[in-house]
């Protein structure tokens, strides 16, 4: 198996495990990632997903180029739609995901990281969408997610030049949430701990509301926010949170 999925208490850890190929995304690996994400969605008690790559060099070096040669247009379109559909499962997970970028994240690897809710990078990590250098453009969501993270002008620069972005710059432009020294997996656990103590249903509603901001006009987004904030208000956890505030104690959320 090229994808490992482990359970660590309230966390699920998905690890790309093709270090000899820099964790490249063959179509078979994409299928394995999709199956693993389905398994995470069905796990009871999981509060967040961590996504990383095996080995010291790469988070994921992108698509397996050998598989892209000599394909028909229909096959190429199907391949792009497969990658998009697999990464879109991260948007629909009932829990937030954190990409732990331990090395190169190029092409499809950068797109996988961008599909996660959050991104942490090791100091040696590097990002890039180099498809333009092959006469191609990103096909697994990069042209859509990158401008939502860093703005249209900067996204166009990165996509049209295909240049590599080091970790420090990625943090500065908003491509990653933080650069983490030391054990990246431990940093991911600590980062997830900052939000997993809150109500899972309400966390999901908040994610849904923010996701709509990039997909719709302001007024329609505000209407969605009103609907979702009302749903949050009706939860038992909201009642507990407000009561705890008035009583000057920590709330005890029960995900209800």
Automatic annotation (TrEMBL):
The reply to whether Chaperone figures as a keyword in the UniProt entry is no
Q: Which CDD domains match?
A: crotonase-like
GO terms under biological process: fatty acid beta-oxidation
The record ties this protein, via Pfam families, to: ECH_1
- Extract the GO molecular function terms from the UniProt entry: hydro-lyase activity
Entry keyword set: Lyase, Plasmid
Record keywords: Lyase included?
A: yes
**What is the top-level taxon of the source organism?**
Bacteria
Task: Report the family membership.
Answer: Belongs to the enoyl-CoA hydratase/isomerase family.
Protein name listed in UniProt: Short chain enoyl-CoA hydratase
Q: Which organism is it from?
A: Celeribacter indicus
């Amino acid at each position: 198996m090229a994808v490992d999925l482990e359970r660590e208490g309230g966390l699920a850890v998905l690890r790309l495990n093709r270090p000899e190929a820099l964790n490249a995304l063959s179509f078979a690996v994409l299928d394995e990632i999709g199956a693993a994400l389905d398994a995470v969605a069905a796990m009871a008690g999981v509060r967040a997903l961590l996504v990383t790559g095996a080995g010291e060099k790469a988070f994921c070096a992108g698509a397996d180029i050998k598989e892209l040669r000599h394909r028909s247009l229909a096959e190429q379109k199907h391949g792009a739609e497969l990658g998009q559909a697999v990464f879109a499962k991260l948007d629909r997970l009932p829990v937030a995901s954190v990409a732990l970028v331990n090395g190169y994240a190029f092409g499809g690897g950068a797109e996988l990281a961008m599909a996660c809710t959050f991104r942490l990078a090791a100091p040696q990590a590097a990002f890039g969408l180099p498809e333009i250098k092959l006469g191609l453009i990103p096909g697994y969501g990069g042209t859509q997610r990158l401008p939502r993270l860093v703005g249209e002008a900067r996204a166009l620069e990165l996509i049209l030049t295909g240049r590599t972005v080091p970790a420090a710059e990625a943090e500065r432009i908003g491509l990653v949430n933080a650069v983490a020294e030391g054990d990246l997996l431990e940093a991911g656990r600590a980062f997830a701990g900052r939000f997993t103590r809150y109500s899972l249903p309400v966390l999901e509603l908040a994610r849904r509301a923010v996701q709509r901001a990039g997909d719709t006009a302001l007024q329609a987004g505000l209407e969605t926010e009103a609907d979702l904030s009302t749903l949050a208000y009706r939860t038992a956890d909201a009642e507990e949170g407000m009561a705890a505030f008035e009583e000057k104690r920590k709330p005890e959320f029960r995900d209800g």
